[in-house]
């Protein structure tokens, strides 16, 4: 045994490892290069993807290769059915992608789908649980599978009707168009008619009424308005493009009591108040020298010159029409860059404004007071009014001046409130006689055309924005140039600037109106986002038939006769979107999602009912009711800005036999012709919101020709 080492001072236990070449294996001389570099931390999106990959690792998946470029996640989900697919891993610039399935049954169903429709994608490989499965016998090992010619979006093949489970319309009829009858035509301006005198510029020749849905009750028109200064409940009413308030506040009541003088008010205790030298309204403001009473700056401006000469002399000021008219603000378009207030919206791009300066504001309210006072004592019209006649229009507690525009229907007179600009239809019992004095009072509400804002039917979103711009304290700066005058519509093109936010309301309205094409990878919209307006249940209701192609199954599509023109109005927006805004070459709308589709050269909105892989999804046109296979190149994604309500309803015809012969169907098609106005005997609605129609004569018509 070797002698034990007694001196341990020079012993190093690491020397053997240091001299061992197997253990001492440096890459470079510098030791810090051997230290493993710290890895860059993963981004949150990469971490989520990594966790998702781990979660999907135990599920079967297919590795597929695109054959055409427009295959998106939505298209893959629809191709394999969303109930089978768990997730999709698709890179932006790669033709290879993974589809994870819920189970082996879903995987085999996907194989069958690929075999039946190989035009869109092909199998690259399949795996389960991270282990590659052996290739099926039908996949060749010797070479890559033969590539089929790519599916060209413009290529239109045959329509596969045998694979469809939903019936399609076979009639091929065009969608009916419902023409909007002008309110005023050129014949109303002939000779020395009232309208030719009152409207020399023929402004009302292009007037429109855009609030049929409000008349029909499709919207909530009254809301509770919270006003801290009021002790009484105040209701805000939205009425034909104009916002007004029902239920006066205490301040309004005092002003009305002060300004309206009658026999009863003189009996009240008015000690401390005197009658204004100008308007005879009660006021406590007087001159400290001559004790002359006046209400405000407007009344003072009328008598100031006479007062300066007669103050202290004991002479009273002499107020006549000439002195009053000198200081009354002139009617017409306000000057450039002046502040204005909105009184009403006539159309999406036509708004009525009035000056908002102090003098004009007082003069405007004085006119309203004069009209209200006059309306308390006038009598009703003893005969039907004529176009252009000025009348007093009463509704509720409101009294306004109005000009008659149309009397074609003696029970439904069209008038325009000349102090606001709102166009309404009313019963002649609400119209009263108007004196020449009141009819000749100044009119301060002036229409302007909003520059750059297109004319569109009023959507619920646009309606909220329009009414939101009308407030007692909201003022806008009016900007325009005289060279932009619209000679066709006899209005000035202008821009309204909301100075508080330094923003043009023109751009805001255009943003609300103009649709934006959604990305094809975005989730689509469903019919549930759209409000539905159906005819009320009851008897003897007038309807217009929008589609009769399913009479064989006892189904018909109708819309209320009053709202049929609204369908044609909204088509203008769909047509502009399909022709000028949407840029996608093709779009296969997933089942149950909204889209814009072209039928017979016209773009309309619809919902995808079924896809069978032939490139022709079955589209139900919501505003009409027919179901037609439409090629993917004639379909566009649905923009979220289109919130027009659905006005067409599916009805089941009551008391019809289950099986109808061709002769019976032809008789029904003649009785219920496309686009015809029909009066049904009764509309019935069940607990599941399904509607039925009863026509008593149809049963006899069918029984004459038994099946």
UniProtKB/TrEMBL annotation:
Name of the protein in its database record: Protein vreteno-like
Domain Tudor as annotated: residue spans: 383-439, 587-643
Gene3D superfamilies: 2.30.30.140
InterPro entries, A to Z: Tudor
Domain of life (superkingdom): Eukaryota
